[in-house]
Each structure stands twice: as C-alpha cells, then as structure tokens.
Design a protein that fits this description.
339 residues, Immunoglobulin-like, elongated
Length: 339
C-alpha cells in the first residue's frame, strides 16, 4: 500500500435530505404508540449541517392529535425533531420527523424520544438511531509501482483503495507534470471495505511522478485521497500512433426490465474519431469478468449510443481497439443500479 496517502475535502455540495432507508434495530417502549423500529439512514457529514429524516409507523393514526420529539447525540444536549403531518385513516400510518446533524457531531447511538398526544393523554416512546461516521479513505495503491511502459504495448495498471461510509468510490491517475490522466470511473466494491479497478497505460504516457486520486462520495459530499506513484518511459522509445480517448455515460438507476442508453464520444487526438467501432461491455456486480454486450459505430461527430435492457446491477465500460495508426482506448467504468 502507498505510504503517502493524503486526505482532503473535495467539493462538498448539497446538504441532502435523507428519506427513511434501511430499517435500524431500535427498542420500543412498553405500550408504544408505534409499530416496529425507527427507520433512518443517518450519518455525520463532511461539512455543513444536513437534515436527516427518521420514519416511524404510527398506530391508530386517527386518534393521534400531536407528535413531538427530541434526539440526543452521545455526550451532547437534546435537539428538537420536527414531525410533519400524517394520514389519519387506517390502523397504521407512516410519520416522519427531521433533525440536523453537523460535521462535528459524534457517530454512534443517538437516543430518540417521541411524545404522542391522543386527546388528554400522551405517551412517551424511545428508539435508538445509529448514526454512521463520516466517509473515510484509509489506504490506496497502484500496482505495479513503478509502472514500466512498453513500446507498442498497453500496460495493465491496477488500483485498490480502502474506504468506509461511501456510496461510490472512484479513481483517476494523473500526471504531475502534464495533467494527462486516466479516468477509471467507479471502482468495484468488494464488499469488505475495499474497492478495485483496472486501466491500461499506453507507451506514450508521460514518464515521471503521477498521482492516484481516490474519491469517496455520499449524498453529494466527496472526500478526496491522494497517493503518489512513478511511471517509467519505455525502452526503445514510443510507437508512432495517434492517441484515442473514449467517454461513457449511463444512468445511475434504472428500473428492472426497462431499456436504457449507454452513450459517449470517441476522439482521435483532439478530433472526432469518425466511424470508430465501439465495443460496449458489462460486468455484473460481484463478478470479475466483463461480457461484450454490443458493437456500435461512432458518428461523424464521434458520438455513439446503444440501448440495453436493465437486468442486473453492474458496471459498464466501452473500448475502441487499436489499429495500425491509432492506439486503443478504454472508457471510465460506470455503475448502474437496477431497481
């Protein structure tokens, strides 16, 4: 692993309102006014204060005339929870409350107390909300290091990072001298806190000091970690081929069975790569091999697009093969969540 891993706050935008997510285990008080546990996806933000939503299932909603509450972080004072309106009919109705969490608040078990008024009577209800820590990046590495370029060949470069609390982790390799970069896009989640990805460096890549940039993102807030590595020039010089570059865009979420578009653009040098044959690949989440899903020709402006049917969560990538005059190119990887 890289010894020089530095972390910094990248652009953190949009304090997100989090709707009730995964159900968290919480103890209900005896004689509870609610069914089940509190539901919340609460976390400590990188910066700014966010508004978090907690959702509960209110019993006999038609008899309830008021709901109020407080939440207590470990070692801190109570803060108010603002509850909204609820449906008055039926035997049970969801009711949601919001409260703020700031960057200096502690993670851990927060105690939620909710008072429900029914006419002249009121009941107190206790829950525990688990608030997760800020996302973090604890390690990042490039293999091999140094990267030894080879004339006429693309060299495989692997990236691995360890992160927590992020919904997505992505990476770039950037030359310190020229700003040339390889964008890996979303890294594979290995379900153990590690993330991995692969790219291929051409023989004309800038030799010298490079930086691995790792981005851990959650709800519009991004933490950036960096680590250095070295690229060595190829023995015998560089092959004389034009550089190609390809982009890829796919929707973040798609309903299962629906058709969606994978699209992008291909460049040869700085111009559109007209007529380039684009190979579109898919790798299901949790697997290691890509499958060729289809071929499409780039237009006169270098653009390409192809429709696919959403079946599984997974990663999409596009590639153009090398020719006698042009280098190969691999797009960043994009993850599609099939719901």
């Amino acid at each position: 692993m890289m010894k020089r891993l530095r972390l910094l706050l990248a652009t953190a935008t949009g304090a997100a309102l989090l709707l009730g997510g995964t159900g968290l285990q919480a103890a209900n008080a005896a004689g509870s006014d609610f069914n089940g546990a509190a539901s919340s996806d609460a976390y400590v933000p990188l910066d700014k204060e966010i508004q978090v939503t907690v959702t509960l299932k209110l019993k006999d909603p038609g008899t309830a005339t008021g709901i109020s509450g407080t939440v207590t972080p470990p070692g801190k004072a109570d803060r108010a929870v603002a509850f909204g309106d609820w449906t008055k009919s039926g035997s049970e109705a969801p009711v949601s409350g919001t409260f703020g969490i700031g960057k200096d608040d502690p993670a851990g078990d927060w105690q939620l107390h909710v008072k429900v008024t029914r006419g002249t009577n009121s009941g107190d209800n206790a829950f525990t909300i688990k608030v997760t820590a800020k996302q973090g990046i604890t390690a990042a590495s490039v293999t091999p290091n140094p990267v030894k370029l080879r004339k006429g060949k693309d060299v495989k470069v692997s990236v691995e990072a360890t992160a927590n609390g992020a919904s997505t982790v992505s990476a770039k390799l950037v030359s310190n001298d020229t700003g040339e970069y390889y964008d890996l896009g979303a890294l594979d989640s290995n379900n153990d806190g590690t993330y991995s990805g692969v790219t291929y460096m051409a023989d004309d890549s800038t030799a010298g000091a490079w930086t691995l940039e790792v981005y851990a993102t959650r709800a519009g807030q991004t933490l950036k970690g960096v680590a250095g590595f070295t690229v060595e020039e190829p023995t015998g010089g560089v092959s004389k081929k034009a550089k190609a570059r390809i982009t890829l865009q796919a929707p973040a979420k798609v309903a299962q069975g629906k058709r969606f578009k994978v699209a992008g653009k291909v460049l040869r040098g700085s111009a559109a790569y007209k007529g380039a044959e684009v190979e579109v690949y898919f790798k299901a989440k949790g697997t290691t091999k890509y499958k060729l899903m289809g071929l499409v020709k780039a237009t006169s402006t270098g653009k390409y697009a192809k429709l696919f049917k959403a079946a599984k969560d997974g990663y999409w990538r596009a590639k153009v093969e090398s020719t006698s005059t042009t280098r190969s190119a691999l797009s960043p990887q994009d993850f599609v969540d099939v719901r």
